[in-house]
Fold this protein.
Amino acid sequence: MKRTFFALIFFAAISITAMAQETAIPDTATQQQPKKPLKLDHAEPLYIDLIRDLGAHKGEKEWNIGAGMTDNLGYDRYEFLVEYEWAPIDRLGLEIEVPVSVYTTNSKDRRPEVYRPSDRIESLKLAAQYTFLVNKRLKASMALGNITEFELTDLDQIRRDDIFKGILFNPFLVAAKKWGSNFHSLIYTGPRLINHFGHNGLETSYEINTSAHYMIPNSRNFVGLEVNKEMQGGHMDMVLRPQMRLLINEGLMIGIVTGIPVTKERERMSTFFRLIYEPGHKKH
């Protein structure tokens, strides 16, 4: 299974080709095209990514194909996602995503008492994000957004149960700042409110995701660290995610992430890959 998983990632990386689009207006064309609002470059984390670039311009769009593997002690979890995001107007980003999880027995730990979840299409995920602040002097941007996920029933139960088993709301705040020419920091934070159909009350947790990146000069490549923290019922889970983004060509990038849990009560190491395709992107 693991060899097949990495073979699929390699095949996806070499089989997609990029088209070309302009992301900024050349100086020679400022009189022919309308002036776009200010947009600052910020390094975007790769695991918990943004809905769209902060300060997005109308017409921007992006496809993401993600795949990862997590060692959950008694079983392995393979995650896959397909995501499309676009900006219908300046500074507003929209996203639709379908994540899938597949579980297999961990060859290192075959304890029969360990519960292994069922394979599932996790949810239908819809999201919106609006950048309300872009400050050139401070090199900072801020945005508000919300994610709504319609959770789906496990695949082995879908014939007997309703197709939807719950709904999740995740309002969030994003604040990003550029330090000097190449260093970037970002915080993404907000509550997660889950209503499981047929159960009373809400399941609540709170996320604080922070990241710091160094952008390689004169390129879109970066290296950095993303820290994902989730607090629930007085307990906090924290995962460190060293990562890098590599430019394949002007419209195609790949992100590589390693997950290192601070405590290993629920999971061990993990990996995640993100193939990022921006139709029509062109270097300015």
Notes: The first helix runs from residue 2 to 15. The domain at 2-23+35-277 is CATH 2.40.160.40 (Porin). The radius of gyration is 20 Å. Confidence is low (pLDDT under 50) at residues 4-30.
